[in-house]
Amino acid sequence: MNRRSTRDVLADHLRLRQAGDVETDIARNYEPDCVLMTSYGVFHGHDGVREAARLLARQTGNGGYRYARQECHEELAFLEWSVDTPEVSVPDGADSYWIRDGRIRAMTIHYSVHEK
Fold this sequence. Notes:
Blueprint: H1 6-18, H2 22-29, E1 30-38, E2 41-44, H3 45-60, E3 65-73, E4 76-84, E5 88-100, E6 103-110, E7 114-115
């Protein structure tokens, strides 16, 4: 059993995403059979995480994420985030996480992209 807390996993996930290191994030933080339910469809497993990350990168570029709020309770985590680049803004990012035994098992992801 992995002893990393929900808060530890969330912090590692966010740090790696800010650094653009999707592959390390996937290997270290996501369960192989994870499920992501998003505004843009349902994604399954590590390949689904990659696909969802590529979609977000296409939509927002490599703009820096701002994390407005992070909450953790037992196996659950919640994140409010935004992106603002010269081309687009995402003012309403909201992710929820189910994290068990040091791995993200399921996520919900909502965001809307506004072109400038």
